[in-house]
Write a structure and sequence with these properties.
about 450 residues; alpha/beta; Rossmann fold; OB fold (Dihydrolipoamide Acetyltransferase, E2P); 2 domains; 7-stranded mixed sheet; 6-stranded mixed sheet; 12 helices; 17 strands
């Protein structure tokens, strides 16, 4: 998947020397923390949400103090949906001893013991169905889990073995008008395609059927389930990503209706995992950048890691012009297509927007500022979990934007990023922490930075 969810081997893993990670601090606060590890992907899903928020608040305050991040994290902004919120769900497919499993990433094949059926097993991420064949999750909508059960029921038949044995992942993604089901396969031959088409026809005849079904070929069996292992670290994503995707039924794109914009994108493109938090996140971003009032035609917005254009449209529409930078591939193509379509439908309402492709490096940042001499410039920086590449923050600092909104989805990377901004002559003016990932040991943090006086 392109965007924040993807791993870039060029990026550094966040380092917090002599400081416990946020997840470790949170783990130490959980009930029974000394009695063994909690399931990693959903360590808080069993708690009542007010208690989860209380523990996260304690953990983020301790992390802030121990890591020396300037200022205070403030109160965590809660999510409207604390459970059943995930807009993307995935299961790893496995065929073992004639049985077909759909399991969470990293989950072991459960032992079949009658007394354990339907319960969490030690070392597994969450609940399972009554037979231990389909892993469940309190963080996913029932529509997603219903689709996993349907796929499992069909592909457990002996005659559907060619598809079951050729699967890497089964992925469900939300969009309008409904869910998209993506069958990620490592083998693509006549039998696999035929069985995928038969599965599609059968699914469309069931209640709560998906709006779209896709077949995605990933011969590399990548852990990054919508990337297909087709990334050259030096050149960015290859154009062949899109070539591996085949639409078997329904709309070929996902779409979100947000802030009056209908934004469309390929199923391969990253989108936020918690759509119920998008209005709040966008409101906080505009407020921090002082874009919540009327039009600001004198402002240029530079949107780094712009994806399909969420911030470019929902914050940049208030500005006089927008430049979005993103890796080449389906995401930047979606941003360009969204602008072409929306500007044609709403002539004169949108500012000028241009979207440049490439890996976000100091050189690409310089390209983004080429035409901005003398302009009042705001920057939104929304990198992958691993953070910015070396030199990007320093390059931004040299161009002296009026304000920078740095979106951090990896809490442990905040101290390093804040240090880089201090070295570039910027200081953290305000922080907003969003509980974008309830039930997990993750938070989304918005840092507003301004030039040091």
């Amino acid at each position: 998947m392109t965007g924040k969810g993807r791993f870039n081997p060029q990026l550094r893993a966040p380092a917090t020397p002599d400081t416990a990670s946020f997840a470790a601090i949170l783990q130490s606060l959980l009930p029974g923390s000394g009695q063994g590890a909690h399931p990693v992907p959903e360590p808080l899903a069993e708690l009542a949400y007010p208690e989860e928020l209380r523990l996260k608040q304690l953990a983020i305050e301790r992390f802030w103090k121990q890591s020396g991040v300037p200022g205070s994290p403030g109160r965590i902004v809660p999510s409207p949906l604390a459970r059943a919120y995930r807009s993307t769900s995935k299961r790893r497919a496995a065929c073992v001893s004639g049985r077909f499993y759909l399991l969470h990433a990293g989950e072991r094949i459960p032992r079949r013991r009658p007394a354990d059926r339907g319960l969490s097993r030690p070392g597994t991420p969450g609940r399972t169905d009554g037979e231990g064949l389909v892993s469940l999750s309190r963080l996913e909508p029932e529509t997603h889990q219903h689709l996993f059960r349907l796929v499992h029921r069909r592909l457990s038949r002996r005659e559907d073995a060619p598809l079951a044995e050729g699967l890497n992942w089964v992925v469900v993604r939300d969009g309008e008008p409904g869910c998209a089901l993506i069958l990620n396969v490592y083998r693509l031959d006549r039998d696999v395609v035929r069985k995928a088409k038969q599965l599609t026809e059968w699914l469309l005849s069931q209640a709560a059927a998906p709006a779209s079904v896709f077949l995605f070929h990933d011969p590399s069996r990548s852990e990054y389930y919508l990337e297909a292992g087709r990334e050259d670290a030096a050149a960015g994503p290859a154009a062949t990503w899109q070539d591996g995707l085949r639409c078997l039924a329904g709309p070929r794109e996902l779409s979100h209706e947000i802030d009056g914009f209908s934004l469309r994108f390929s199923p391969l493109v990253f989108s936020q995992i918690n759509r119920s938090m998008l209005p709040e996140m966008l409101h906080q971003a505009r407020e921090l950048l002082e874009l919540d009032g009327g039009p600001a035609p004198e402002i240029h917005l530079l949107d780094l890691y712009c994806g399909y254009g969420l911030f470019s449209f929902c914050a940049g529409a208030r500005c006089g012009s927008v430049t979005g930078l993103e890796l080449a591939g389906p995401a930047i193509a979606a941003a360009r297509q969204n602008f072409a379509r929306l500007s044609a439908k709403r002539p004169g309402e949108l500012p000028s927007m241009r979207f440049l492709d490439g890996r976000i490096t100091p050189t690409l940042v310089a390209r983004g500022f080429e035409r901005l001499a003398g302009r009042r410039t705001l920057v939104i920086l929304d990198p992958p979990r691993q953070g910015t590449e070396p030199g990007v923050v320093a390059a931004l600092g040299r161009f002296r934007p009026e304000a920078v909104l740095h979106v951090c989805c990896g809490t442990d990377g905040i101290p390093d990023e804040a240090r880089r901004w201090r070295e570039a002559g910027y200081e953290v003016e305000k922080t907003v922490v969003l509980d974008l990932f309830p039930g997990t040991a993750n938070l989304e943090t918005l840092l507003l930075l301004r030039p040091r006086r």
